[in-house]
Amino acid sequence: MLNKVVIILTSILLYKVGGKLSLRSQLLKGILEGCILSIINIQPAYGYELSVKLQQFGLSDVSEGSIYPILLRLQKEKLIIGEMRASESGPKRKYYKLTEKGQEALQLFTHHWTLIKGPVDNIIEQGGKTDGSN
Amino acid sequence: MEATEIIELNNEKRTRLTEHNLKYYEDMLLYIRLNGNKSEQQTEEVLLEMLEHLLQAQEEGKTAEEVFGDDPKAYCKEVVEEIPTEKRKNQASLIMMVILQFLGFFAGSYGILGTALHYFFDIGSALTTFSIGSGLVILGIDLLLLGAFILAILKWIKQSTFSKKEIKSWVEFLQVWAISTAFIGLIVVIHFVMPSFGKEVSIPTYYLAILGVIFYVLSFLMRRKQNF
C-alpha cells in the first residue's frame, strides 16, 4: 500500500501525469529521460551508443528503440541538440549534446531523484515487514 | 545535412538489411513518413538513426523485434507524436507546389491537345470559351477534390502498413482504382453539372498550353529551391 503511494507521488513529482500512457511507462520514461541527460552530459553520444550505455548500466529491461521518442522529445523541449557529423568509424551520425536548458533540467532531475531514491528504497526493503506487523 | 541527402543515404543503407528486418523497417518508414504536417528534416533524421541502429543490432544477430518491440505500430505512433510539426512556411510552399503542378498538368495537356486537334485534324475550335464566375468555382472545387484525393491515398497507404495478412495485389489495385475513379469522375461530373455564370470570355486554346508550361516550370523551380 505504502509502496504504491510513494510510486504515485514520485510520478507526480517527476512527470506530467495525465498523458495517454500508463503510470508505469510514464514513470520509466521520466527516469530514462534523466539517465539519457546525464549520459550525454558526460560525453556527446549518438543513438546506438546511448542504448548500449544504458544496457551496460544494467537497464537491460528497457527496449533499445524506446530511446528515440525520448530523444525527439528532449530535442523538442530544447534540452539537447543533435548534430550530424562523421564518426570515428566513418559514417555520419547524429551526436547529441546538452544545451544550457538541458543542464538545468538535469540538475533538477538529480535533485528530485536524490530526494526520492532513499525513501523508496527503504519502503521497498521494509515493505514486507510493515505489511504484517505494522 | 539536407532531408533529400538523408533520404538517399537511407535508400542506400536500407539494402543491407536482411529480408525480415527490411520488411519490419519499411513498414515503420512508410508509417512515419506519411504524416504530412510533420517536420521532414526531423522525420528523416530519426528514420536514419533507427536504420543505423537496426543495422548495428543486425550485425550482433538481433532482430528488429528485439530492438523496437513486438508492436511496431504503437511504437511508431509514439515516435510520430514526438516529431515537431513542419514550419508553416514549408507547409504552404508544399501545397502551392502541388497546386501549380496540378494546374500545369491540366492546363498544359488541355491546351496542347486542343490546339493539336484543331490544327492537325480540324476538330473543335482554336478558341476556348468559359465563364469567369463558374470557371473559378469549378477550379476551387477541383483543388479541394485534389486535396481530398491526396489525403485518401495517404490514408490508404498508411492502413496497408503493418498488416499481418498479405492482401492480394488485385484487391489493392481495385481499391486504388476505385479511389482514383471517384476523383476523376467527380471532376468530370462537376464540370458538366455546374451552371455557367459570370462574364463569358474566349481565349486561344494555345494560351492554356503556354500557361500550363509556365505553371509546370514554376513548380519545378520551387521543388529545386525547397529540396522537396
TrEMBL record, chain B:
Give the matching InterPro entries.
Answer: DUF1129
Q: Please name the Pfam families in this protein's record.
A: DUF1129
Question: Does the keyword field hold Cell division?
Answer: no
Q: Which domain of life is it from?
A: Bacteria
Q: Any transmembrane segments, and where?
A: 94-120, 132-154, 174-194, 206-222
Looking at the keywords, is Transmembrane present?
yes
| Keyword vocabulary terms for this entry | Membrane, Transmembrane, Transmembrane helix
Q: Which PANTHER family match?
A: MEMBRANE PROTEIN (PTHR41307:SF1), MEMBRANE PROTEIN-RELATED (PTHR41307)
The protein in question is named DUF1129 domain-containing protein
According to its UniProt entry, this protein's organism is Oceanobacillus jordanicus
